[in-house]
Give the backbone structure.
Amino acid sequence: MNRELVENILSVINTANDKSVVIRALVKLRTDCVKDRDGIILFREAGGVQKMIRFLNKPHEQILEVVLSIMGNCCTDVSSCKEALENKILNNLTVILKSIPNPQIQCRACRLLGNLAKVDTQLVATHSPALGKALCQIIEDSSDVQTRMMAVRACRFLLSNPQFAKYFLQFSGFNTLLRILFSIMKNSEARVNEEEKLLTDSQDSVKLGLKRNQHREKYFEEVARNLEGVRSDIFDYEVLKNSSRSSNTYAMPEQKDALDLACEILKCLLVLSELQLSVPVWESLNRASCSFTPIVYFVSEDNKHRSVALKILSNFSKNPGAFYTLSSADAILAACELLVNNVEKPLTESETRHCINIVSILSVDACNRSKIRRSGALRKLIAMLRESSSHSEKTSILYVFLNFQYDNMSMDLMLREGLIMVLIKELQSFINSDEEYYKRKREEKLQSTKKRKLAESVKETKCKFPKVHEDVNLDYDSPSGSPRSLISPPSPCSSRSMSPVGGNLTKAGDFDEESYSPVCSDDDDDDDDGEDDNDNKTSNLYTNPNANLDNHSVIMNLLDLASRPEASEDNILLDKEDDDEVSQDVPALKLPNIGNLPHNAIDIIDNLIFRVTYMVKKGVDLGKPETLNTLIKAINMFGLNMDFAGSLTNILLESQFFGQVVKQGIAYQLCQLTKIKELAKEGFTLLDTLTSVGECNYGKEELARLLRSDDILSQKRAAITVGFIIKSKPLLYQFLNDGNALSLLFNIILSHKEDEFTAEAVDSLTCMARYTLGIQVPQIQTDKRYQDYEQYIENLDEPMHENCDMRFMVYNQESADKEQPPVVIGFNKKLLCSTSEVFNTMLNSDFREGNEGEIHLHTYTVSGLRFFLHLVIKQSLQLKLNLIPPANKYYALLEAFEMSRIYIIPEMEKIIQELLILLLNENNCLSLFEWSMKNYHLELTEMAINYYLCSSLSTEAKVRLFRTADYSTYSSEWFQMLYDAVFAKCRASF
């Protein structure tokens, strides 16, 4: 058909007075012109759209039907839609929908309205009140399936406009859709069987003479029989058959029209599920006894609409008011069955995500948690977390587990399924991985934790066992006790098997409020090829934890954070009157994003590990090396801003893990925390926690058993642990002396085979000496005084005094040639005599020195003498004695100290002794010890020993010094005095 012909037909329509002629012309246009895209364009360019609109005012129903059909086809073209809207087609269309009950006309009008709404929802929605009422009335009252389907379709496109959605809900459109879907999906055979069953039950009740409310008694008997007081794995297996949902209540419609209507309703419900519906809407739904069970029916293994139904349920779960409706429809069982069963059509990534969403949000209810556990979904989720490579999926599953942390049975089941090691693996990956994703998240997390304020109050679970110092007598052959026999474990104020009352999550530091936030991912993109590390996905949850949101708003915003526009995934029939028309889902209305979210994946892991360690019955995996080591790494990374330290505390308090803690050298790792300024306090607290267990009956006996065991490695670990954690000095003495722990420590350090035990033994000895025994070296105020000291630069060519009338003869040469003549050093006699009465007596008497003016020195070096004489000159001039010899001339300081004692110069002796302490280091400690032994200077001997025991020398330096002392002339004295120093401090408290 060409343009001229179209224009001629339109001219005939405009001028003809015979309605039959007009109808035939309109039919000609519909069948021959607007049947395809080219014809529609030709019709529009010929001015047909504007001319057709005036026919919508005609009361002739046959003309209206054909015109609506033509315009319905034309409005599959965007330009035609815009022209029709500009010519105010909506005014006429609204009147038709409100006033003409003819099903055919309503069907055509609804189709036309839907096509217009696809192009401009805002403009169409200006007539929202009238259109909302009219469409809801047609959906409810019409008996024609096609009419209903077109009305539902029109609503689907209009619902993206908030104004229309408001009136649609006001006129009970939501309720109507659910009722129609229920009537379509209801299985007639099941209805007959149900009526027969009710009749049979009634007859049986009369026959058996059952008294009133007998069914209630039977119900409670069944509940009592199934009380969850037995092992959950046995219980779950026995009652699993009672948890399966009934599938014969509904059936897929056999008539094609009914099936098409059901599919169109699903599409409309999908758009509705994207809206945030108010609580009164859900209350109205519940009062009208509308159910989601027909939607849940589509969630089955072989249903081709499974994906759409899952998405509807998942989206509705974001609405706080939908909780009861979803729970009563057994949506939780449907989602669990898909997750657990090996379906012929495997779940897509988006379907899996929707199932997890449903499980996560509905699991806040204890009954739903029981269904989830019985269905086997809890096991499946742990397996998925273990095997998944998707960061967003892992995060979603972790949010599911938050709701189960208060149920003992669920926690027991998860522990048996390996929850602990799965969490530890995820934590390890986060800490150690070099992946760009983890690097970015780790940096974000560290930044956020730095901003957190530390909680001022101590958490209830961080209370430590009091130290046990009373019973210090060890029986090395007696059976072990248990610290549990001394002190009962801490318990929460509420039952662990009961979910806490939902409240505001206001403080990140408040465990019982913050942790109970059942949130999951709801990424609305069903494209399985999406990248996991996309920044817009739910895994990107590393944000400020200090949010003030109620429980469900947190869930909704987390779900919304992950949502993206979604391509159509359901296969629903399109408009039959126009094969070229493309049906598109209306983009979902987006909830406002909220940037402050209270949780992220690491927070959840921290929360769950803490809850596991807090349980009375703890999992054996908590004592494994990877668990303890990973927790210590996490403490190093996050410090006190997270509660990994609390988790480790709970593990250390448990006596069943004490032996493993000792054998793994955990005490040494805790000691390393004390060397970090920010973590020192926490490190000491954790060591004190270990002390609580180590000093109780069980701990003492366990350490004693390990010290006398045949396993050398266990002996070493036990000896090292004793040094770190035993604070009771009588008990420490028993371990060190009777248990031979101190000898073990010394032998480890002396061993020429250096391994991890060497550093541990050195640190254990230092920790014990400094913090337990209180051994210390006199502290010299070096902050200001040290700045006043001058470096002594020795110049052998420089005379000691301008008037040298006496001399020193030095025979102890520093060179290798011992046969050289003595070195002569001149000095002023008067100055020397004024400094010391001993020199005065020697040089002004009948002694040989006085007659010859010479003092012969056989045990001192030139450097030592010259340093001493420089100090004499300074003292005579009343200057500060602030000379410091070079580091390699420590012996000169020792010689000057000895001469100040021999020649009785107390002021100089005091200053030089301070210098000996101030300059003490790894290179001269042994020299000081040997000199003090040779010269019987007990104070310096004790100082050298104490310095080795308590100084902060590096591990390598202490090992070198210890092994060098083994080859010293005074090696036996060295080791004996180390023993004596330690044991003397221990015995001091007896």
